[in-house]
């Protein structure tokens, strides 16, 4: 029972943009806190952006001003708009809850930033 399905990744040049999507199949999507996570080879998953049920957002410094997290409650969808991409952004991106216990991880979506 896959509850988190990420999509939208791909290969982009430095300075380019991507919009990642996360389809969530659980109850009470709209009142939970959600987040995007990044994982690079050999590293742990790191939370990079978070949004509360009331649409308050938080970002780590290295994506602040470049990435925007948002959601559509009716559609149970979470998004990450990624602008001004850098090679350092190359990673697998996952969605999950941002508070409490994590749901089983989805497959993630690969982002490669390279010229």
- Largest sheet strand order: 2-10-9-4-5-6
Q: Assess the beta-strand content as a share of residues.
A: over 45%
* Radius of gyration based on Cα positions: 13 Å
Please give the alpha-carbon distance between the first and last residues.
38 Å
| pLDDT averaged over residues | 97
Largest pleated sheet: 6 strands, mixed
What is the string of SSEs from the N terminus onward?
Answer: EEEEEEEEEE
Helix content: under 10%
What is the overall number of helices?
A: 0
Principal-axes geometry comes out as globular
What descriptors fit this protein?
single chain, 115 residues, mainly beta, 6-stranded mixed beta sheet, 4-stranded antiparallel beta sheet, 10 strands, 0% helix
Q: What's a quick, concise take on this entry?
A:
With 115 residues, the protein is mainly β. The protein is built from no helices and ten strands. The strands form two sheets. A six-stranded mixed sheet has the order 2-10-9-4-5-6, with no helix packed on it. Strands 1-3-8-7 form a four-stranded antiparallel sheet, with no helix packed on it.
Account of the protein in words:
The chain has 115 residues and is an all-beta fold. Helix content is 0%, strand content 46%. The strands form 2 sheets. Strands 2-10-9-4-5-6 form a 6-stranded mixed β-sheet, with no helix packed on it. β4 (34-39) and β5 (46-51) form a beta hairpin. The chain is globular and about 40 Å long. The termini are far apart. The model has no long low-confidence stretch (mean pLDDT 97).
């Amino acid at each position: 029972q896959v509850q988190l399905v990420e999509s939208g990744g791909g290969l982009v040049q430095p300075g380019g943009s991507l919009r990642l999507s996360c389809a969530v199949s659980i109850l009470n999507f709209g009142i939970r806190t959600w987040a995007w996570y990044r994982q690079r080879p050999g590293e742990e998953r790191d939370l990079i952006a978070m949004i509360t049920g009331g649409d308050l957002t938080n970002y780590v410094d290295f994506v602040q001003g470049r990435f925007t997290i948002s959601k559509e409650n009716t559609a149970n969808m979470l998004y990450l708009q990624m602008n001004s991409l850098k090679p350092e952004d190359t990673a697998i991106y996952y969605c999950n809850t941002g508070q409490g216990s994590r749901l089983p991880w989805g497959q993630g979506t690969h982002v490669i930033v390279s010229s």
